[in-house]
Design goal:
80% of the residues lie in helices and 4% in strands. It has 7 helices and 2 strands, in the order ββααααααα.
């Protein structure tokens, strides 16, 4: 515990273990590289395969990489600032989820089946990348709201990749674009679910900081 004093109050702030652990910083750099690098590759793959689910998943990768980078910078900030960053992350997920749902609805009016084989292959690689990222972060999944937010991003990415692989199989079986569009919507719902958890934890942490003053 450390004492933090100001002219108006005296606050006792608990130092977050994960945030002060050099291993956590290294883990974040690995996750940033995995997310940003593969996200760009998956985005191109999504256009080639004409898969809305892959495009949505690639934006998730790229968004996670950028938000994880912000989370890494936030480790040097106060607990209150970290909670505010986590709150911003939750709001970002809401916006991204709503955007993906809207785009999937628009594409449903011009539904074209994607290349199922390419879609499934990229989905398998994406799953491997996300499982690797989740394993890297698994020991840090409990902690302050910004730490938990980054863990949730990687966990939900892996779940979304499983859905993409299933959708690719259904597209190949039915010859319909709807499994692809439905999975794009499912990924968006994962965004929205995570945003509620992240916002709730961030508000809780902000409340603790205010109560300690």
């Amino acid at each position: 515990m450390i004492e933090n004093s100001s002219s108006s109050c005296s606050c006792t702030v608990e130092v977050d273990h994960a945030g002060s652990d050099p291993a956590y910083r290294r883990a974040l750099w690995i996750v940033i590289a995995l997310n940003a690098g593969f996200g760009i590759c998956e985005l191109f793959g999504g256009f080639i395969a004409d898969s809305q689910a892959l495009k949505a998943d690639s934006l998730d990768f790229i968004g996670d990489g950028s938000i994880t980078f912000v989370g890494l910078l936030a480790l040097a900030w106060s607990a209150q600032a970290r909670a505010r960053v986590a709150l911003t992350q939750g709001i970002f997920l809401v916006a991204l989820g709503v955007g993906v749902i809207g785009f999937a609805l628009w594409r449903s009016l011009h539904a074209v089946p994607p290349e199922a084989d390419l879609m499934g292959g990229i989905g398998v690689i994406a799953l491997m990348v996300n499982v690797s990222a989740a394993l890297v972060l698994s020991r840090f999944r409990e902690g302050a709201s910004n730490v938990r937010a980054i863990w949730l991003f990687s966990r939900n990415d892996a779940l979304a990749n499983v859905a993409v692989i299933i959708a690719a199989g259904l597209v190949a079986w039915t010859g319909s674009a709807w499994p692809d569009l439905i999975v794009a919507g499912v990924i968006a719902l994962l965004f929205l679910h995570s945003s509620l958890e992240i916002i709730r934890h961030a508000r809780r942490d902000l409340g603790k900081e205010q109560a300690s003053c």
